Amino acid sequence: MAVVVWKTLSALLAVCSAARAQNFTYEANWDSLDARPIPEWYEDAKLGVFIHWGVFSVPSFKSEWFWENWETNDSDVVEFMNANYKPGFTYQDFARDFTAEFYDPDTWANIFQSSGAKYVVLTSKHHEGYTLWPSDYSFSWNAKDVGPARDLIAPLAESIRSNTDLKFGLYHSLLEWYNPLYLQDQANNWTTQDFVNQKTLPELYEIVNAYKPEVIFSDGEWTASSDYFRSKEFLAWLYNESPVKDTVAVNDRWGNDAKCQHGGYFNCDDRLNPGTLMVHKWENAMTIDKSSWGFRRNARLSNILTIEELLNNFVKAVSCNGNMLMNVGPTKEGVIAPIYEERLRQMGTWLDINGEAIYSTRYWSVQNDANNKDVWYTRSKDNSAVYAISLIWPSNRQLTLGSVLLAEDATVTLFGYSRELTWTDTGSEILVDFPQRDLVSSDWAYAIKMVGATSR
């Protein structure tokens, strides 16, 4: 009876939340904007793919901050330029070699679908200011005017929507390192807003109306306030009037007063993974290359996260109420390197087996087990099951759980194994007996489902 009541209340709350999101008029202040619920699809999705692609993919050295590193005399970048390019070569000269001749959006969509991700976020414009679409506000510094000579966003958006069940999203940088309007506003101590009014804000309206992204990942917020960037005004329009007003999910990087405080889900800092519960929905935006978000020609295998390391990050994030947005950097030609494709497909293989313990789950009363640092918990949305995910194969085939109590008639099953598991309550912990490892189809982390479990 209690389960039935709980399900009924949950359904009613979901309906009320959806109705509020659709009918409530949001005002351009943080109290009002912060009241908007996180879209349930985003709560359920857990995993997204991030794509950093731009002119920085041409030098493909050091990182996507190549231009800034060069201008600030980073010794590695200066040495690289002196050794490989003639005097007088400018960053803008790289753009003609951003060719994207092997860019196949259908291939990308297939790889992303195979990863088990539920949304994808493409950099529409990074801090260099170059736009991947033919923006009316980025004359001669966009993918139509220089480089690929075409819109790079539209075909990926179409392929994602036509060929997968993923949501399509866009990243957009509020700042541009060397835009004269931005530098003049900065010199005026942000008392003028010429850059915002003539460049970055019109771009945001432009990409929302043109591509209808269901994720907007804002970045470049650290130099000025949300008032300078007019972020609250934009978000009020986004939530009230835009073509994605009922479904769009946004992050928190809307000004140096907003990060980890306001907006939608929290990114806070890159590679956020607190290891403890954050009740406000959050996301670990991280990259498979340990040092760069953009493609690096000189990256070594040791610079690439293993599938075990990715799952470690992912499982911890989901257990603690987070999503994970894992980044790949395509080449200037538009190729996703095989090592990135392998990692994405490995994630999908694991999720094909263990996805029930991840998708549409919610955080439990315990995140990390009291006695076993390698075990992390989630629960089903209807509270009918608790999942324990062990990041390693248990020693002596016996999984120790110090935070769980099991009812006498409780059932314990292991994803990737067909039989029910036996278990023992010692009075202080639960011991779950695992089968021979070669009988389990999951190769990395191991998830069990417990029906009849409560916290100890």
From TrEMBL:
Gene3D superfamilies given in the database record: Glycosidases (3.20.20.80), Golgi alpha-mannosidase II (2.60.40.1180)
Secretion signal span: 1-21
GO biological process, one term: glycoside catabolic process
Entry GO MF terms: alpha-L-fucosidase activity
SMART domains found in the cross-reference section: Alpha_L_fucos
Domain Glycoside hydrolase family 29 N-terminal intervals: 17-356
Top-level division of the source organism's lineage: Eukaryota
Domain Alpha-L-fucosidase C-terminal residues, every copy: 367-450
Enzyme class label: hydrolase
Pfam families from the UniProt entry: Alpha_L_fucos, Fucosidase_C
Record EC number: 3.2.1.51
InterPro entries membership: FUC_metazoa-typ, Fucosidase_C, GH, Glyco_hydro_29, Glyco_hydro_29_N, Glyco_hydro_b
CC per GO annotation: lysosome
Keywords: Glycoprotein, Glycosidase, Hydrolase, Signal
PANTHER family xrefs: ALPHA-L-FUCOSIDASE, ALPHA-L-FUCOSIDASE-RELATED
Role played: Alpha-L-fucosidase is responsible for hydrolyzing the alpha-1,6-linked fucose joined to the reducing-end N-acetylglucosamine of the carbohydrate moieties of glycoproteins.
Stated family: Belongs to the glycosyl hydrolase 29 family.
Protein name in the entry: Putative alpha-L-fucosidase
